[in-house]
Design brief:
17-stranded parallel β-sheet; mainly beta; 3 helices
Length: about 375
């Protein structure tokens, strides 16, 4: 899965996590769908998919699933290895399949990389905090605002967030550090309705996030735990661990415009060839001048492999070396190509011609 594939999932995927847990007697409603490697939902009343505003192929995808007192609507249930149902699962014109159509690991890796990429962006919009109110504003197509440790302290007493942004623009709120962020009972005000919750992304670094009351926006929290402590989420949630501790409603809303999300293509690697004076071998070195990432290399059309360091080609004849760079959360670089020739310098070579492949080999 590359970053384009991962982001395209955000069009339809509302809740994703590695581990999703709700074990108390509280109630849970997810309007659209839930995808998690490990799902443990027990007790209370749990409804998934009933409020979906579009036709969907699935309501739940999991690997190991415990679904107690859970009713599924508008989409099938897929599970990979275990389905434990302490109370009957009622499905609305849907089926249950023992198969796993989702690549949890790859999607999560892309999400981690993409979240990191977003946090590298420099703030280009405005924020002020005064007597419990955060006033946020900007006139860019994509607005970035960074919240540091002091801001996280401010959120303990924050009761209102005002959004005043360019019509239809995207607002990315980057939280840094590792302190827990409390977004509790906050009033969201969208000035002149130039944007809605679907235009807002809360992007957390290593923070845990505790949400109580209403939150209007989408949440990305790739390393910490998201605690839903009596939350009403008007948006989507993508994280590592999600824990529900009180009545929670996740309404049917996702990121507004996937094609408008920023992405960056990696810089192509530099390939150099070093030959000895007799040109009877080629030393190949590949340099990556971009972020820490993985270099892939192919010689003479063979499958790409991970480049682990300088290597030597001894086979006589022309050679073509291709290479590109990949990293989770980024678009692959363009392919770099270089060619070279290894000549035979021995005095009396043995020449063998393979008629099936039209290859001449010198020994």
């Amino acid at each position: 899965m590359n970053i384009s594939d991962a982001l395209s999932n955000l069009n339809t995927l509302q809740v994703f996590s590695n581990v999703f847990t709700k074990t108390g007697s509280n109630n849970l409603t997810i309007a659209r769908n839930l995808v998690a490697s490990t799902i443990n939902i027990q007790h209370g009343t749990n409804i998934i998919g009933q409020l979906s505003e579009y036709g969907q192929e699935y309501s739940v995808i999991g690997n190991t699933c415990t679904l107690g007192n859970t009713t599924l609507y508008h989409g099938s249930l897929y599970y990979g290895t275990i389905l434990n149902s302490p109370a009957p699962i009622n499905t609305d014109f849907s089926n249950i399949f023992k198969q796993n159509p989702f690549d949890f690991v790859s999607f999560y890796d892309q999400l981690v990389g993409y979240s990191s990429y977003l946090r590298l962006q420099i703030q280009n919009s405005n924020k002020t905090f005064n007597t419990g109110v955060y006033a946020l504003s900007g006139q860019n197509d994509i607005n970035y605002i960074t919240f540091n440790d002091q801001d996280i302290i401010n959120f303990l007493t924050c009761n209102t967030i005002e959004f005043d942004f360019k019509q239809g623009s995207l607002v990315i709120l980057n939280f840094t550090g590792a302190n827990t962020v409390y977004l509790n009972n906050i009033n969201f005000q969208f000035i002149n309705n130039t944007i809605t919750e679907s235009n807002v992304i809360f992007n957390f670094e290593n923070n845990g996030v505790n949400i109580a009351g209403e939150l209007n926006g989408n949440v990305i929290c790739t390393t910490g735990t998201i605690t839903l402590a009596g939350a009403t989420i008007n948006g989507s949630i993508y994280g590592n661990n999600i824990t529900v501790t009180a009545n929670t409603l996740i309404n049917d809303s996702v990121i507004y415009n996937i094609s408008g999300l920023p992405t960056r293509k990696l810089i192509s690697p530099i390939i150099t060839l070093d030959t000895n004076p007799d040109a009877d071998y080629l030393n190949v070195t590949i340099i990556n001048e971009d972020i820490t990432s993985t270099i892939l290399v192919s010689v003479d059309g063979l499958p790409y492999e991970i480049y682990s360091g300088e290597f030597t080609i001894f086979n006589v004849g022309p050679h073509i070396i291709n290479s590109y760079v990949i990293a989770p959360g980024y678009s692959n670089s363009d392919i770099s190509t270089i060619s070279g020739v290894v000549t035979c310098t021995c005095e009396n070579p043995t020449i063998i011609f393979n008629e099936a492949t039209n290859i001449i080999t010198l020994y």
